[in-house]
Amino acid sequence: MSSIPAVPAFTAATAPGALPVLGHGLRLLRGPVGFLSSLHEHGDLVAVRLGPTTAQVPCHPALLAQVLEDDRLFDKGGVFYDRARDVAGNGLVTCPHRDHRRQRRIVQSAFRRPQLAHYADAVRAEVDAAAAGWRPGLVLDAFPVFYGIALRTLARTLYSTAIDAELATGVERAFDTVLNGLFRQMFLPAPVRRLPLPANLRYRRALAYLHAATRQLVAAHRSGADRSGAAGESGGTDLLSALLAAADQEAGGAGLSDAEVHDQVITLLAAGTETVAATLTWTLWRLSLHPAAAEQVRAELDAVLPHGRAPRPEDLPRLAAVDRVVSETLRLHPPGWLFTRITTAPTELAGRPLPTGSTLVFSPAAVSRHPAAHRSPTVFDPDRWRPERVTPAARQGFLPFGTGARKCVGDLFARTECALVLATLLSRWRLAPEPGADLRPVPLATVLRPRRLRLRLVER
Ligand code: HEM
C-alpha cells in the first residue's frame, strides 16, 4: 500500500471513452460509483465530460483534501449545488463561502457534544415507538422504517416538534421524488426543465409540498414555544429556537433572515434523514453477510448492556465494535456519493491550469476505495478501524462526511443516532434479510441506498 506522497506530485489525465454530445454522462448514469472509482487508474486529477460541461475529478485522497480545505477558492457551486439550491435555497449545505461562517456558527450550536447527550432520550423514544408492535417473524422494509425513525428523531431533537405518521410519509415521499429528480434535473438544459412534462410537474409538486411542510414545522414550533414559553424538550434550547432568535437579531445585521431560517430547516431535513436511514440499512445488510462482525457486535452489546438495558450516551465510548462497523459501512457505502465545487479564481491543480468557473466533481465513495488509502479497499473489514491499524492515509481516504470547513455539521449527531439505534435493535433482535433483496443503488438517487431490503425479526 503506498502512503500519502510527502511532496505530492499529482498527475492529470483525461478519461478515455467520451461519446459525442453525452461525453461520459451515460457511463456515470449507468454505474456511477463503478465509473468514478475506476478513474484513478488514469491519474490523480481526471477530466470527464458530462454533456457540455467538462468536470475535473480529484481521485487521489490527498488531492481531494487539498481542494476541500480551500473552500474559498473551491466554493460550493457547479451542477450539483446549482440544483440543490432549488431545494434548500441558501441554507448551510448550499450557501457560498461568503455566507458560510456566519450560518455555521448559528447552526453548530445545536450539534455540540453536551447537546447531543440530551438527544439520546429522543432517539430511544423513537426506536421504542417504532418497535412497539414488532414481533418475532415480522418482516420490516428497512429503509422506510429507518427513514421514519430518522425524521421523527430529527424533528423532536432539533425542532422540538412531533411529526405524525401522515406527515412523515408525505415528507419521505416528497424527498424521494425531489432527491431522485435532482440528478435528472442536473443533466437537463434549463428550457427542458421548465416544460410541463410529467416528471417536471411531479418534481415541482413535491418541492412545493416540502416547502409547505417546512412552514408547518416552523409554525408548530412557534405556537408550541408561545404556549410553553420555553424552547425544546431536548434539554436545552433547540436548534429551531436558536435559528428564530438569530432571525430576531437580524435587524442588527448579524443574524438570519426569515428566508434563511426556512432554508436551514429544509436543509437539515434533507441532509439528516435519508443519509442516516441509508447508513442503518447498509449496516444491517453488511452485518447479515458477515457473521463474525455481527458476533463481535452482539458480544459487545451483551457486555455493555446487560439484560437488554437501553443504551445511554455514556455507553457509546464502550461500543467500539458498533462504531467500527458503522465506519466501515460508511467507507464502502457513503450515502452522499457525488458533490461539486466551482473555482472562484484562476488556479492550478495537479499541474493543470483551471480558469475561474471550472467545475470539480468529487465522490467520497470513489476516494474511499482508492488503493493509496486502504489495503484490499473493496473488502468489508471493520477491524481496519482498530486504533492500532488506522494510518494517516486511511484517515485521509475516509470522507463520508467530507472535510475542511464544509465538513458535515451533523457527523457526530448521525454517528450517535446510528450507534443508539443499532444498539437498541441488535441487543433485542437478529435481523435476517428476506430473499429478493435488490441492493443496486436507486438510479440517479442523491443518496446512495439499496432499492429494496427486507429484514425478518428473529428474537435473540
Ligand atoms: C450518515 C449520515 C450523514 C452523512 C454521510 C453526511 C454527509 C455529508 C457530507 C459529505 C457533507 C459535505 C458536502 C460537501 O462537502 O459538499 C455534509 C454536509 C452537511 N451535512 Fe451531513 N451527512 C450526514 C448526516 C447529517 C445530519 C444528521 C445532519 C443534520 C441533522 C447533516 C447536516 C449537514 C449540513 C448542514 C452540512 C453542510 C455543512 C457546511 O457546509 O457547513 N448531515 N454531510
TrEMBL record:
Q: Name the UniProt key words of this record, in alphabetical order.
A: Heme, Iron, Metal-binding, Monooxygenase, Oxidoreductase
UniProt keyword annotation of Metal-binding present: yes
Q: Which domain of life is it from?
A: Bacteria
What Gene3D superfamilies does the entry give? Cytochrome P450
Xref: InterPro entries: Cyt_P450, Cyt_P450_CS, Cyt_P450_E_grp-IV, Cyt_P450_sf, Cytochrome_P450_Monoox
Q: Which family does it belong to?
A: Belongs to the cytochrome P450 family.
PANTHER family recorded for this chain? Answer: BIFUNCTIONAL ALBAFLAVENONE MONOOXYGENASE_TERPENE SYNTHASE (PTHR24291:SF50), CYTOCHROME P450 FAMILY 4 (PTHR24291)
Q: What is this protein called?
A: Cytochrome P450
Q: Give the species this sequence originates from.
A: Kitasatospora phosalacinea
